[in-house]
Design a protein that fits this description.
The complex is a heterodimer. Chain A is mainly alpha-helical. Helix content of chain A is 71%, strand content 0%. The chains are: A mainly alpha, B alpha+beta.
Amino acid sequence: MKTSAEALVDATPSIPPERDLKPRRATKDYAEARARTKTAFAKLAQLEPEDPDWAEIREQLVRLHLPLVEHLARRFSNRGEPFDDLAQVGTIGLLKAVDRFEPERGVEFSTYATPTIVGEIKRHFRDRGWSIRVPRRLQEMRLELSTVTADLTHELSRSPTVSELAGRLQVDQDSVLEGLESANAYSTLSLDAPDTRDELGGTMAEALRFDDDAFGHIEDRESLKPLLAKLTPRDRKILLLRFFHGMTQSQIAAEIGMSQMHVSRLLSRTLATLRQELLSD
Amino acid sequence: MTDVADPPVDVRDVAEIDMSVPAEGAYLSVLRTAAAGLAARLNFTLDDIEDLRIAVDEACSILLAQAIAGSRLTCAFHMTEDSVTVRASVRATSPRIPSRDGFSWTVLTALTSRVEFDIRSPDLLLIELSHQRPVVGLA
């Protein structure tokens, strides 16, 4: 996927992603590619899908815009799915965009295609974000729970109970419990988990300053430290806040800006990792 | 997970629930889920439910690391109106109690109201942890 697309980039002037439009190199190529796109769509409109030329022009349009797909796929490539897979589903979005595009509306094709491609990539994450295939009903319950938990935590100034959640959602408690269970099956690969490796820079330094105090009494701190160093800043921060600063999961959720369920999942995962390595000594 | 509604159970009338699973990691989820379900029915908050779930996971994992291969992990849940006590044990060849100053113990004490390890017989390692529901409602 990537290699064929790269070859094409070399072979033909293609539409560079809008953001990357630097006057120095691209203007001429871009104008050319845009003109080619326009011509191709005009031709396509005159042909019937049965015409052999129709398929060929459609193919050309797709090739011309593969770099756009790759650019968009790259924006999602730090979230645990292989880049090639993302580019592939993005290409499906591109195909849909080519087939639905109406040039007479006067919108640039790349402008029109971008949300379709992104939509397809996001859908891939939605479908793949479940380590166990979870019915859509439960996925929806999880999302609702996440929202309502945040609302109620705010209203009550504490974490809600299952019966309070059930009351607000107007479902029975068993449904809430099912939703919570399914949340635990939800893998960390998720769109509500943006890549925060850089974002926590400042606060992390702050959190780590407490390290020596926090771990002072921990006997196995020397074996723990290198393991902590291997965690992502976000996971390490959550761990510190929960176990060494005595914050609750809801407080951490508010501090970091994610759902309480997500904090719980990340904590479980981090502990499992540390345990495995500490016990293997 | 069935569409047939379970009859309502007042867990406060059920003092003890005993479970026994193979001493293998794959069965931990059964115990975690049981703990979370029981805590939910005692009207614990989500924070407390998830803490208990993680505590059971941590505690039982410590036990499993020492368990004799092919043995069983037994787990008893005792409920009162506002607390869940989990007592889990495994057979181990030479049971060791984790250090009170170790990371695991720190984690467990942060997650529970009380945690104790005990060696009941030369080959029985036991952990007991309780989670007390904090007084809520006067926010």
